[in-house]
Specification:
The complex is a heterodimer of chains A (about 300) and B (about 425). Chain A has about 300 residues and is mainly alpha-helical. Chain A has two domains: about 140 residues, no CATH class; about 160 residues, no CATH class. Chain A has ten helices and three strands. In chain A, strand 2 and strand 3 form a beta hairpin. The longest helix of chain A is centred in the C-terminal third of the chain and has 37 residues. Chain B is an alpha/beta fold and about 425 residues long. Chain B folds into two domains: about 260 residues, Peroxisomal Thiolase, Chain A, domain 1 (3-Layer(aba) Sandwich); about 160 residues, Peroxisomal Thiolase, Chain A, domain 1 (3-Layer(aba) Sandwich), CATH 3.40.47.10. Chain B contains 15 helices and 15 strands. In chain B, the strands form three sheets. In chain B, strands 1, 2, 5, 6, 7, 8, 9, 10, 11, 14 and 15 form an eleven-stranded mixed beta sheet that branches. A two-stranded antiparallel sheet of chain B has the order 3-4. In chain B, a hairpin with a 2-residue loop joins strand 1 and strand 2. The longest helix of chain B is centred in the N-terminal third of the chain and has 18 residues. Classes of the chains: A mainly alpha (about 300), B alpha/beta (about 425). At the A-B interface, helix 2 and helix 3 of A face helix 4 of B.
Chain lengths: ~300, ~425
């Protein structure tokens, strides 16, 4: 018979009986199963991203659903009463009997680290807010900013290493690539040094995302109007085509809304910088500077 | 001109031994890996004995990282353990616990790792209970509580992608499935792949879990499994024996690294033996061939094709490692060997069944038995075929060719065949490496 796996029984805990630090500890232990970067996982703290093989726990993006599920299984909440919202079976959660935690669709969009997962639980009222704890949590905006820095640093390091091994024309091409990457890294390092410039760059991205989202919303309005007009006619083919178009725009709109939410958070937070964020930024700036120096550019 | 293909690595997870040294020792000693299982009794299985690799979670975690362990089904774990041993045996420095994600991709090597049933432990122990609990506690919650680990654990190619992931294989990496011929077919597929120049080396073999879910369907087929030796598990698997009453189900894995001779010599690899010919066919489920019985003509054709392709005379064959499962098909198989080899009975080669010790490991059988064949060839011994001291009346003609004790003997050619549900056949011919 199959070998016996040692089973871990998880006793769900009432989120109102433990503090933020304990919640964070349990979240980190719970996601161990999905993390592949053991070194990073074992030293993970509030600000270790779940994703990313370089700086995160190495959890594949498809496992984000598992992280949310793991969090749901570990905790109990009083937010259990479902209050219907709209006609599509959607609901919000209000206070009720102590029961299983349920994280609704989209609520986990910014929970990229254990600390941000704790923040999510606080934001949606599953546990009391703890400003002192949140002060130590790096915002989603800076997790994203620092992550981009690490990716850039890694790409430059790889390019330098590759160029060193080549000769002749190939070496010249690789050196040109190093030069381009080093210039990008230098510009990014400078951007990181200036919170205002960083905020401006992020706000530009947000403005573009917002405009795209609004255009899509208008498109949907038009499609709905056209559909209303068509349903009064007897043109079944046209109605079917318009329904397909409406469903397609709604799908795109949903994706766009998720992107916009992330973009808005990044834009709103990029200009501010807590001590924890300052430390993270300083760390990646040092790494970038060192790699740029090694590239000889 | 055809490329010469050699075997440069072996890895084993068998019911009577985990790792090649333990497997070899068990084969030489005629040690059975079949045991009685309380859970099968609780479930009221007619056959309550089976072969499961003697392995614990702690042993597995000495090879596989804990973070990966949870994402693997039983068959994937067996496949990965066998593949790691095989890779190391072939000269690769593999230490998964030190990290493997940054090791370079080997673009010239792929994997054909077969699986007969697969994933049943995940379906029975995770998928079913989770879905039942979700429906009971929150009707309408749908599939969300299932998580994202289920698909990689139950998909057909789960065993090969596990091997490919851990070893960083950049060649074609896939899973074949042809019932009990699976392991042998995987070796044939890898052999062809190298012959055609698509890869310089391939990890090939088969894996099967030993969860009762894998065995349950066979138990439901009544006389297919052995149900008369529940009190004497070690005696249950009796290929060619007079008391054979059905096969004993088992699980495990074996992986071989096969390689072009040029590649093996270029990297100075140790060579276990040469794979001189391989072939697979089907009896078409005609002329006596059915879902569960092979067409004897198909079997004979398969064996003859291997002999023809290799140019090896039947009289040069030292040992037959048969499919021989401990069922009513054994006499028919013996007849097919006699028919295909066309040798005077006094010159009939030795014939054995590794299943007498490990039971029938289904999708892993051909690979585990191929490893047994290769090890005997390279180490110069013949393992006993146990539990057939009284030979089946219809096999009496070749009774003198069945080894009941281990024999030290130089072997030149060992031929191995497998036959599977659906009337599919496979045959491999190995030559001693000088």
């Amino acid at each position: 018979m199959a070998f016996k796996r040692k089973e871990t029984v998880i006793e769900a805990t009432d989120l109102n009986t433990i503090d933020a630090a304990e919640t964070e500890k349990r979240i980190i232990a719970g996601v161990k199963k999905y993390a592949t970067n053991e070194a990073n996982w074992s030293s993970a703290d509030a600000n270790t991203p779940f994703l990313g093989h370089i700086i995160g726990m190495g959890i594949e993006s498809s496992n984000l659903a598992d992280i949310t599920m793991s969090i749901e299984r570990q905790f109990l909440t009083k937010k259990t009463t479902r209050v219907p919202v709209g006609a599509n079976g959607e609901f919000r959660l209000e206070d009720g009997e102590l029961g299983k935690l349920r994280i609704l669709d989209g609520q986990d969009a910014l929970a990229a680290t254990p600390g941000l997962s704790v923040k999510m639980l606080m934001d949606f009222g599953h546990m009391a807010s703890d400003p002192a704890y949140l002060e130590r949590v790096v915002s989603f905006a800076y997790i994203s900013v620092v992550g981009d820095g690490h990716k850039m640093n890694e790409a430059l390091k790889k390019a330098v290493s590759r160029a060193e091994k080549l000769t002749g024309v190939e070496k010249d091409e690789a050196a040109a690539n190093v030069k381009t990457l080093a210039a990008q890294a230098l510009a990014y390092e400078a951007l990181l040094a200036d919170p205002a410039a960083l905020a401006e760059a992020r706000q530009k991205s947000y403005a573009a995302d917002k405009a795209a989202h609004e255009a899509l919303s208008s498109e949907l309005t038009m499609a709905v109007d056209k559909l209303a007009g068509a349903t009064t006619s007897n043109d079944a083919g046209r109605v079917a085509a318009l329904r397909t178009e409406e469903a397609e725009i709604k799908t795109r709109l949903k994706m766009s809304a998720a992107k916009l939410r992330v973009s808005a958070e990044v834009a709103a937070q990029a200009g501010k910088r807590s001590a924890a964020e300052e430390a993270k930024v300083a760390q990646i700036r040092t790494l970038l500077s060192e790699t740029i120096r090694l590239s000889g550019c | 001109m055809r490329k010469r293909v050699v075997v440069t690595g072996l890895g084993v997870v068998a019911p009577n031994g985990v790792g090649l040294p333990a497997y070899r020792a068990a084969l030489k000693a005629g040690k059975s890996g079949i045991t009685w299982h309380e859970q099968l009794k609780k479930l009221n299985f007619a056959c309550q004995i089976g072969g499961a690799p003697p392995i614990e979670e702690d042993d597995i975690l000495k090879v596989l990282p804990q973070t990966d362990y949870h994402k693997l089904s039983e068959a994937m774990i067996y496949a990965a353990l066998a593949a790691v041993e095989c890779a190391r045996d072939s000269g690769m420095a593999v230490d998964l616990l030190k990290g493997y994600q940054n090791t370079p991709v080997d673009w010239d090597t792929g994997a054909f790792i077969g699986c007969g049933v697969g994933g049943m432990d995940t379906i029975f122990e995770e998928l079913g209970p989770v879905m039942a609990e979700a429906e009971e506690q929150e009707p309408g919650r749908g599939t969300a509580p299932m998580g994202t680990d289920i698909v990689p654990k139950v998909m057909g190619s789960s065993v090969s992608v596990a091997v490919g992931k851990f070893l960083g294989l950049g060649g074609q990496t896939t899973t074949n499935s042809s019932a009990c011929n699976t392991g042998t077919e995987a070796i044939f597929e890898g052999y062809k792949h190298i012959q055609l120049g698509y890869a310089e080396s391939m990890f090939v073999g088969g894996a099967e879990g030993s969860h009762y879910g894998v065995w349950s369907g066979f138990d439901a087929m009544r006389d297919v499994l052995c149900s008369k030796y529940n009190e004497m598990p070690g005696k249950g698997s009796q290929p060619m024996g007079a008391g054979a009453c059905g096969f004993v189900p088992a699980g495990g894995a074996a992986v071989l690294r096969i390689e072009s001779l040029e590649s093996a010599q270029k990297r100075g690899a140790k060579i276990h033996c040469e794979l001189v010919a391989a072939y697979c066919n089907s009896g078409g489920q005609r002329d006596g061939g059915t879902m569960t019985f092979p067409n004897p003509d198909g079997v004979a054709r398969c064996i003859r094709r291997v002999l023809k392709d290799s140019g090896v005379s039947p009289s040069a064959i030292s040992l037959i490692n048969g499919h021989l499962t401990s069922t009513g098909a054994d006499p028919r198989e013996a007849g097919s060997w006699i028919k295909a080899l066309e040798l005077p009975l006094e010159k009939f080669p030795l014939i054995q069944s590794t299943k007498s010790m490990i039971g029938h490991t289904l999708g892993a059988a051909g690979a585990l038995e191929a490893v047994a064949a290769i090890d005997q060839l390279s180490q110069g011994y013949v393992h006993p075929s146990i539990n057939c001291e009284t030979v089946h009346p219809e096999i009496q003609k070749i009774a003198g060719s069945i080894p009941h004790e281990m024999i030290q003997k130089r072997l030149d050619y060992v031929i191995k065949a497998s036959f599977g549900f659906g009337d599919v056949n496979g045959c491999l011919l190995f030559k001693r490496w000088e």
